[in-house]
Amino acid sequence: MVSADFAERPVKKLVLFDVDGTLSPARQRASPEIIQLLRELRKQVAIGFVGGSDLVKISEQLSVGDINVLEEFDFGFAENGLTAYRLGKPLESQSFIKTVGEKDYQELVNFILHYIADMNIPIKRGTFVEFRNGMINVSPIGRNATVQERNDFEAYDKEHHVRADFVEILREKFGRLNLTFSIGGQISFDVFPHGWDKTYCLRHVEKDNFEEIHFFGD
Ligand code: M1P
User: Fold this and answer.
1) Which of 140, 153, 207, 209 has the most other CB atoms within 10 Å of its CB?
2) What are phi and psi of 47, to 5 degrees?
3) What are the strands, taking DSSP E only, across the chain?
4) Which atom of ligand 1 is nearest to the CA of 143?
5) Residue 139 CA, ligand 1 centroid: distance in Å
6) Could you name the CATH architecture of 4-93+197-216?
7) Listed residue (37, 62, 41, 39) closest to 50, CA to CA
């Protein structure tokens, strides 16, 4: 049976929404129509958001006026659920460094920085490793690259497979750390523990016993 907190909703289901590209255009604000639609939906079912970015960015995208985004949703999952809220209250959070540990992280980051130092690519800028709560993001050109420099690197990488070769070596050398190396954007790749994708948030809703969970994402 669904938990008492949701017993009064006519439909005992949970509907989860991705943020970028679903509730709002990537990194932009959601429209008032979407927010209104979510309010109507919440009268029927439990609702939640599951975004990859941090809570500050998601709040900017989904907040309306002075209303806190966490009051508009039954579940709020930033960084895919590493930061999690249920009915406005925080649940246990998790971080990359807590899980990997300082010693192994330093071994990994030292290897990465040496590898980038020895790499010959047309240009390098700055911020080659960005340390985030739930992952590290590694960029051979550096995250300070301009838009034009990004586009140029992306084209260069398509031809020379800089990132693909890099992650292959990392997977081989650091397999014991159970990390996922994911090439997603234009100039970088993300590194995070296996399973820390959108499914991570599901562990936070198990206890509520919803009849079904639906996910809408791009
Ligand atoms: O959303 C995909 C990726 O977008 C950015 O990548 P890049 O800077 O390489 O274009 C980063 O935010 C990255 O973490 C993310 O996976």
Assistant:
1) 153
2) -130, 155
3) 13-18, 46-50, 75-78, 83-86, 89-90, 129-131, 136-138, 179-182, 189-193, 212-216
4) 8
5) 10
6) 3-Layer(aba) Sandwich (3.40)
7) 62
Give the residue extent of every domain in the chain. Answer: 4-93+197-216, 96-193
* Residue whose CA is at the smallest distance from ligand 1 atom 7: 185
Please tell me the pTM assigned to this model.
Answer: 0.82
What is the CATH architecture assignment of 96-193?
Answer: 2-Layer Sandwich (3.30)
Q: At residue 218, does pLDDT exceed 80?
A: no
**Ligand 1 binding pocket, CB closer than 6 Å:** 137, 184-188, 190
Which residues are known catalytic residues? 18, 20
For a mutational test of ligand 1's pocket, the pick from 57, 154, 190, 198, i.e. the residue with the most ligand atoms closer than 8 A to its C-beta, is: 190
Q: Which of 20, 133, 188 to mutate to test the pocket of ligand 1 (most atoms within 8 A of CB)?
A: 188
Residue whose Cα lies nearest atom 6 of ligand 1: it is 185
**For residue range 50-88, what is the model confidence (pLDDT) as tens digits?**
998 899 999 999 988 888 999 999 999 999 999 999 999
Centroid of ligand 1 to alpha carbon of 210 (angstroms)? 33
Report the chain's mean pLDDT, rounded to a whole number.
96
What token pair was written down for 195? Answer: 């399973």
pLDDT score, position 64:
82
Contact present, 115 and 172 (Cβ < 8 Å): no
